[in-house]
Amino acid sequence: MTALRRFLPGGGWLSAYAFLYVVFLYLPVIFLPIFSINTAATPKFPLSGYTLKWYEDLPRTPALLDAAWNSLVVGVSASILATVFGILAARSITRYRYPGRRAINGLIMAPLVLPEVIVAISMLLVMLQLGLSLSLFTVVLGHVLVCIPYSMTVLTSGFEGFDRSLEEASADLGESAFGTFRRVTLPMVAPAIISSLLVCFTISLDEFIIAFFLTGTDATLPIYIWGQLRFASKLPGVLALGTLLLVASFLLMTVAEILRRRAARRTQNEGGLYA
């Protein structure tokens, strides 16, 4: 009986496996901020000293500031567009029944399972066939394609938990369909919308492959980091920048998850079906 208990879910071996998995996944990430404060340019133990000069040098790098601005423009644009399309798609999937609904949902989610290199090359060919020059605009289009599935995942839970009787009551009071959507539906799913914006912005900020194939002369932060890795003397600055991106991504995803759970609790308390 004791031997059997060890192999049941919740046993000690499962906890040990989960611990080892987390260590394997995040231990390399922990080294990033540690080496970013090392005085030596070579990331190795023992550390030769502690310094913040690599962080202090970041604002004095014009190319880095330009790349950060480009990433901000691309991230904001892609997150807004992906969230707008995600709202429309999630609304359609959760509210209506029509032929091919499941197939359409699967096609929208396809970028999650397709190799990103294949998606990037395909988009590059499409852009060239349309006569578009590679620029931040093409990067935004590529990021929108990648971000829409994440946006739909977040927004679908918000729309599924929404009580349709509220919309029916609004319609009975004489409000139009668009007015009901704007005054009733959107405020109720606002936490999910904000969560979608944050998730999409984080994904766009960290995305490299799509940007690598679709960017022109204006580099985003991941492209800038990749270019700096060719020079050993630039490595400490890259580690410092990577640490800042890591912290920013962690904070954004944490806030997005908090808002997603708040949206789920809110719709549940309002009598929704989602739990």
TrEMBL record:
Family matches, as InterPro entries: Bact_Polyamine_Transport, MetI-like, MetI-like_sf
Family: Belongs to the binding-protein-dependent transport system permease family. CysTW subfamily.
PROSITE patterns for the chain: ABC_TM1
Alphabetized Pfam families for the sequence: BPD_transp_1
Claim: Secreted is one of the keywords in the record: no
GO cellular component: plasma membrane
Keyword Transmembrane: yes
Protein name: Binding-protein-dependent transport systems inner membrane component
Cellular localisation: Cell membrane
TM spans (from-to): 12-35, 67-91, 103-128, 134-155, 192-215, 235-259
Lineage: Bacteria, Pseudomonadati, Pseudomonadota, Alphaproteobacteria, Hyphomicrobiales
Species of provenance: Mesorhizobium amorphae CCNWGS0123
UniProt domain ABC transmembrane type-1: residue ranges: 68-256
Organism domain of life: Bacteria
